[in-house]
Amino acid sequence: MSEERFTIGPERYAQVARFALWTLALIVLTGAAVRVTGSGLGCPTWPKCTETSLYTELNTHGVIEFGNRVLTSVVGFAAIAAFAGALRRRPYRKDLVVLGATLPLGVVAQIILGGFTVRYDLAPGFVMSHYLLSMLILIGAVALDWRARREPDEPPVTSDRLVGWGTRALLGLGAVTIFAGTAATAAGPHAGGAGTGDEIKRLDFKGAETLNFVISQHSRLAAALGVLAVVLWVLARRHGASAPQRSTLAAVCVLLAVQGVIGGLQYELELPAEMVWVHVALAAGTWVAILRAVAAAGRPEEKAAPARDGSEAATA
Predict the structure, then answer these.
(1) Do 111 and 164 reside in the same domain of the chain?
(2) pTM of this structure
(3) Residue 53, C-beta contacts closer than 8 angstroms, at least 6 positions apart
(4) Furthest-apart CA pair in the chain: how many Å?
(5) 98 and 200, same domain (yes or no)
(6) Which end of the chain has the lower number of beta carbons within 10 A, N or C?
(7) CB 295 within 8 A of CB 144
């Protein structure tokens, strides 16, 4: 009897999963704020904030970095709640437990990677990996949120073959585009140490032309991603896709359009910190939208078997 008191129903668990997703997306927003405000070494060591204290000194950049660390603990609690809730959800579902376990494991990996990032003075490889790991964790969070709102006995979601495979291609191209975006940020002027006066190494594999090179590659990939998203949205409408399939693709198109405008403006204005912050934060939102579009597409319909002629039918 006491055991039953600590169980959770499907609707309540779906709320827990959604909260975990939003907190994991929020930490990307605050992490980007740390970078563009030059507060990456506001807490110059790890796991302590300073050599002698767990807490920050009373200065703007220390508070920004320390605040991000505190928020990480909130995200950690949300991730643990998603996993623990999956264990106590009734009816029990193994798929939710497995997906729920990826969230706290991902947060722990982020904490460790964040420590290395600080200890190695915001080396570009560590900073890029930090952001990319967040995108990987969001895959698990979106999958958990999506599955938590559907029961196993519901009919499987399918989509037109062209739309289904095209949406999966959207996921791959989106991942490459985000990777190129992290390289552009790592080569740009917002290294994360400007506020504290720290000299931070930039990505410079092409010397002085590195920034222009990676921005050029990123913009080409983003343009291709936008074209593919629009084509898929048109195909989804023409092929009678479901409402969730159309709406998720529409969200991707809108976010990519906004990203394109912001990206162009920030380049023309020579990368102001505020616009870079919005661009990086929206990239996470766009990634979530792409993941939801993939989930909504489900499995591409199987190719119909060719009809046999009369003689084959008679033989059969």
Answers:
(1) no
(2) 0.90
(3) none
(4) 87
(5) no
(6) N
(7) no
